[in-house]
Structure formats: C-alpha cells, structure tokens
Amino acid sequence: MAEFTKRIFSGVQPSGGLTLGNYLGMIRPSVGLQNSGEFETIYCMVDLHAITTWQDPEALRRQTREVAAGFIASGIDPAKSILFNQSQAPEHAQLAWVFNCVARMGWMQRMTQFKDKAGKNAQNASLGLFAYPALMAADILIYHATHVPVGDDQKQHLELTRDIAIKFNHDFGQEFFPVTEPIIGKAEARIMSLRDGSKKMSKSDPSDMSRLNLTDTPDDMAKKFRKAKTDPEPLPESVDGLEDRPEARNLVNIYAALSGQTQEQVIAEFAGKQFGEFKPALADLAVAQMGPIGEEMSRLMDDPAEIDRQLRAGAERAREIAAPILAKTYEIVGMIA
Ligand code: TYM
With a 6 A CB cut-off, is 200 part of the ligand 1 pocket? Predict the structure, then answer.
C-alpha cells in the first residue's frame, strides 16, 4: 500500500444554521484532531452540495459565512487548518465528474440518504442530489485525505468513497487514491431530534423546536429542553433502563457528550430523578458550553468581509494541494494536458 500524508478532510452543508448534532458529531471532534498535531486538517463549507436542494441565494451566502463563523468560534484556527468554501476550489467538481464515471448506478441507488431526502417524489429530485455522494468522494480524495471525521449518518457515503477509490485504483492499475478511514464517535455521533427520539437532529427539520442551534439564545435553549419530548417515567437506575426510551436516552446522551462523562456516570448522578429536575440541569450545561460559541459567532458575523477574506485565503491553500492531484488524475485517465 502506498504511503499517504495523514490528512483530515470534512465538510458541512451550509443549507441552514449549525445544530448541536453538527457540533458534537463533527465540529468538536475536528477541533480535537486539529489540535492533536497528528494530521493536516482541511474543513469545508460544501456549498455545491447545498444546492442539490433549493437554496435561496442570499440565504446560502449568509449561511456559508455563519457555518465558517461556527467553525472558528468552536476553535478551528484558520492558521492551523485550511478552512474554505467548496465552490472556490473548482477541482472538487472536476474530480467529481471523473468519479461519476467510476461509480456505478447500482451503488448510488443503494444510498439511504438519497432515498430519505428524495422521499416519495424521487422523479422530481435533482440529478445533483443523486450524484451527491460522488462529489463527496471527490471532496475527500482531491486531497488524498486519509481520515474523515463525521457523524454516524455519513457512514454509508464514506463506504462509497472507499469503493470509488478502490475501483479507480484497480481500473487504472495504480495505488493512486487512499482508502479513507472514517472517524466516527460513539455517543455523540448520533444526536437525535428533541421532538422525536427516532429521528436525527437536523437543520432541515421543519420544526425549530426539534434542534438546538449554535445561535440560539440561553432562553431558547432552556425552552427547547423544557419542551423536549420525554416519557412520564423518572430516569432509570441503570443505562439498560434507557432501552426502548429513545427520547430519554437522547437527553442522557446529550448530557454525557456535553459534560464529557459516560452515560453510566450521568445515570449514576440522576437515577430516579424526574425530568423536571434533569432538563434544567441539561439546559444549564448547554448554555455554559454553547453560549460562548454563539456569542463569538455573532461577533464574527459582524464583519462578513473578514470571513470572506479567510475563506479566500483558505481556498488558495486548498488548491495548492488539489491542483496537482487533479492533474495527475487526468494524466492517469488519459487526458492531454
Ligand atoms: P451535514 O451538513 O448534514 O452535517 C455535517 C456533519 O455533522 C454531522 N451531523 C451529526 N452528527 C451527530 N448527530 C447529528 N444529529 C448530526 N447531524 C449532522 C454529519 O454526520 C456531518 O459529519 N454529506 C455531508 C457533508 C459533506 C462531507 C463531505 C462530509 C460533503 N462532503 C466530505 C465529510 C467529507 C453532510 O451532508 O453533512
């Protein structure tokens, strides 16, 4: 197997604001990976992915800046990591076309996220939504990224990324693309909706009460936890007692993730207590951790030109890595330069 530089790539769609799910599932681990010094780290606002479903152009620009501000406020340092928006590095879309010709229809048709997002009206979904995972593979492989931190919902797309790399390498008889490893946390990789413990917390859920946004005020956060769906039972005596109680399990899980404890430790503290007591403790914890991030985001958003400058500088650095990999890919495939 060829040797590749240890390099992280991950992305977030700027199709809405950032949620607690994005933060715990991806942003917080990404900050840790940046600070470990073990990897080169590249983080991207994937605006080309966002337009696979309709986006209001002005809202898209604002959300792209807001997601960038969220990364920076959470601890991603644009001097240590490369931070940029996808469309400023055209190599992503160029490699995606090559991968459209590597990936097989059957592989794409198995993607559960397409089925979920296209819903019953798949005939009316955009072609881009169907091809989305090939662009995602290109995002990662245009940097020869070796590791990708994501939430649990992106696992299948990363398997597809591996399949594309393996097929490309096999078809052209060289070990050119790395077979990327996902980095998926345990508890924090699957934060569920506050209204329905069987659905993931999502920026596209029509109900704002279903999620915590990084920009929510302390009052919003307290209200959302107070109104979070639960069952009438008190908290159980052991973690096993959370089985078949998806909403209770989710809140315990969020508490554990925010406080850096295990679920067992949280249960040990709150066993037998009512949600009337647990929810305010959870809200206080969320406000203490997320509040400063939201405040810093709003401060950064006061100077959008500075965010744009950071993104442009990030894109230049990204392209220095991407351009030679694209050129080599074209050469391997048989294009004349
Ligand atoms: P997106 O924008 O839906 O989410 C961004 C990241 O947040 C994670 N996440 C969650 N983690 C835990 N609990 C949740 N409720 C939750 N909701 C979201 C996601 O798993 C993700 O890591 N296809 C990707 C974006 C993408 C990408 C890439 C990621 C495009 N190209 C290349 C990695 C590498 C997506 O839609 O993420």
Answer: yes
